[in-house]
Amino acid sequence: MKVLVRAIYSIIFLFIPLACTNYDDDIISLKESISAIEIINQEQSNLISSLQEQIDEIKRQQEQDKLAAEAYINSAISSISQLSDIIDGLTSNFINQAANLALLQVDIETIEEQILDLESQLNLIDSTGDISEINDLLSDIQDNINNNSGSINSLISRISNLELDSDKYDSDIVGCYEIDNYDNEVSIKFLKNGIGYVDYYEISVYFTQLFSWEKQGNSVKVMFGDIIELAALQSRAGYYFEGEHIVEIEMIERNNILYKTITLELLISGDNWPFTFIDCQWFYPD
Q: Is residue 46 scored above 80 in pLDDT?
């Protein structure tokens, strides 16, 4: 009997350390599993954070693209209005060009309709929260803007190429000018037949301001169209031309060559600042 009892105790003592050892292994295994889960959770958290940053960046870019499109639409509306006024003025003065001017007016009305379509597309952006759908809309808007810009540029070119015989447009001011001693962020182009445009390189690739001009004695009167809804434009740089300007051509000598210069006032943050513009030949000699 004593031998049996001793045998039982021996077996129990053999299994106790084995059981404890198994529990320790289980605890270690569980801790390792928890650590692995925590690592996975952290990786997922980092991934979610990275995705959110990408989403925020896409939304930021979309907002910038939308503002740029709004700026284009506003400037295009102004340009089309100015073109229409120019066509009306030319029609009353040049009866021999009535047919050509009538065709130009029809094209202007077509572009006006296209601009309204652009506004409708922009309004759709505000009614959807789907990023991919917004990207598709912005892509379509960009294509339409490119087409419209080409159409407006074509109209400007066609007007400047009309055979008009008038002392009003007989001026040496015709040509290209950029701000002197500056970073060439504004370029002014005076075309024939009393039409011209301004490119603002830094503000937006879309923004071009149209103007008309006519000779008055030894001076030239430059008339800029109204800029509608300037918020988008001001958010980018905040300078543009407005109203009427009387300018005179002055010559300046550089490197034994005479260059044409004119002075115009840019409206910057509500104040007019005079800038001298010099013939583009100074920057880009033949």
A: no
Tens-place pLDDT, residues 47-66: 777 777 877 788 888 887 88
What CA–CA distances, in Å, run from 212 to 115, 148, 161, 194?
22, 20, 15, 5
Give the separation between CA 54 and CA 20, rounded to whole angstroms.
51
| Cα separation, 144 vs 155, whole angstroms | 16
CA distances from 69 to 7, 148, 239, 275 (A): 92, 12, 18, 28
- CA–CA dist 140, 114 (Å, integer): 13
Establish if 46 belongs to a structural domain. no
pTM for the full predicted model: 0.67
Spatial separation of the C-alpha atoms in residues 110 and 155, rounded to whole Å? 12
pLDDT tens-digit series, residues 165-190: 788 899 999 999 988 876 657 889 99
Domain with 158, as residue range(s), is 53-282
E strands, the chain, where? 175-179, 186-191, 195-200, 208-216, 219-224, 239-240, 244-247, 250-254, 257-268, 271-279
Spatial neighbors of 230 by CB under 8 A, at least 6 apart, are 74, 240
Examine residue 16 and state whether it is found in any structural domain, yes or no: no
Q: Is residue 263 part of a domain?
A: yes
Nearest alpha-carbon partner for 47 in 57, 58, 55, 59: 55
Residue 190 has phi, psi (to 5 degrees) of -90, 115
The pLDDT, as a whole number, for residue 261 is: 93
